[in-house]
Design goal:
The protein is an alpha+beta fold and 89 residues long.
């Protein structure tokens, strides 16, 4: 991942305008469901980890991190650890 890859980071809560500059280069969108979506290119894994540290420093719960590939397909990793109701124990 050296040429930049798109990511969407969803957090619980809305960012105050003063924090938006902290995520310079990312599009910050607030949703009516009380979440905020940070979207944009990330140079490499180290930069992604830096963004995730910033989210943690804000104290807002991380809901999901979604890799947005060049073919617009997405793969998602979420922090939701709820059991899948379709799976049998």
């Amino acid at each position: 991942m050296s040429d930049g890859t798109g990511y969407e980071i969803r957090i619980q809560g809305h960012l105050h305008d003063r924090w938006r500059a902290w995520f310079d280069g990312l599009t910050v969108t607030t949703a009516s469901d009380g979440t905020t979506l940070l979207r944009g290119d990330v140079v490499d894994q180290a930069a992604l980890h830096g963004l995730l540290r910033k989210v943690a420093d804000l104290g807002l719960p991380l809901l999901s991190v979604t890799h947005v590939g060049p073919d617009t397909a997405t793969t998602s990793t979420t922090t939701d650890r709820s059991p899948d109701p379709r799976r049998r124990p």
